[in-house]
Fold this sequence. Notes:
Strand content: 15-25%
Number of domains: 2
Number of strands: 12
CATH class of the largest domain: Alpha Beta
Largest sheet: 7 strands, parallel
Distance between the termini: 15 Å
Shape: elongated
CATH topology of the largest domain: Rossmann fold
Helix content: 25-40%
Bound molecules: NADP nicotinamide-adenine-dinucleotide phosphate, 2-keto-D-gluconic acid
Number of helices: 13
Radius of gyration: 22 Å
Amino acid sequence: MSEARISVLVPGKIHPRVLERLRDRFDIVAVEKGERPQIDAETAKRIRGIAVAGSVNAAWMDALPNLEVIANFGVGYDGVDVGHAASKGIVVTNTPDVLNDEVADTAVGLLLNTVRQLPLAEKWLRDGRWVKEGSFPLSPFSLNGRHVGMYGLGRIGQEIAKRLEPFKVKISYHTRTRNADVAYDYFPTLLDMAKAVDTIIAIVPKTPQTHKVIDAEILAALGPEGVMINVGRGWSVDEEALIAALRDGTLGAAGLDVFYEEPHVPAALMELPNAVLLPHVASASVPTRNAMADLVSENIIQWFAKGTAVTPVPETPQKR
Ligand code: NAP
Ligand code: 8YV
């Protein structure tokens, strides 16, 4: 089969640059998202690749008998059933590294906004309250002297930690495996770290092991001066426990870029003045999303040209 006749399925919306890059080389089959692809059997047979921002379940893979590669837009690939892909010899790719700096910058911005209440201060100004009522109230917290516990110290977590060093905060971390290359204090359990620090930044993937691990006990351990920042996945936080802790002062403040059931954010969370909430924008700049789109495209192009992917995930085959 020549490369020109390879068909690539695109379920739902994806960054337009992916389509621009792939359109020259492949037949693009755009379909709605859903439980299974709405295409006829002949088209299904022609599909050898998927480019997706979102999810691909087992039913989609089973409906495409010649599927070889699923290129995911995003470093987190929790939307793709990688176990099923691996069992069928389908490679899954993601977009690591090209977004590290953007996400780390956003995490630091979110931390400062949360600790110093800068979004509320801006609202005070815009609402004319500075003129009518005088200065915005002093922020109860400061970044000075904080002890930050990184929950996750992978590609992005390390960039966040590096950025925090000049802020002169103490840095510790919890992961499953100690990293011999970093000088930060290691905690083998999240609870022990939460007891020792006053600030947690979560940047871990969505896996069965990370489900709602930031729960009432962890939040209570952080305490009334404590701050919890999440730029990983909403899946890792028990949102009901978080709302209760923020409401009754068990936890000082939280900054969230990700939520349990996006794009739905609980109304109770939105009402809380000690929560800073962003609509999953950590990587959402034009340059970084362009780089992610290019990596999605390169993975598909290289797979069919050379039989290897640029950034395959570890669970699935590395070559054709
Ligand atoms: P990565 O390099 O794979 O790092 C993941 C880190 O999490 C590692 O330090 C890993 O250490 C740790 N980890 C994994 N499972 C754990 C567990 N059960 N307990 C404790 N630590 C655990 O991934 P990355 O590139 O930094 O990205 C991390 C995640 O951030 C992505 O998967 C994605 O969900 C999220 N993300 C969000 C945005 C956004 O827009 N908000 C943007 C990019 C990424 P061990 O393996 O040693 O445990
Ligand atoms: C994107 C992300 O917002 O890379 C990830 O894992 O969460 C973000 O960079 C998302 O993947 C866009 O679909």
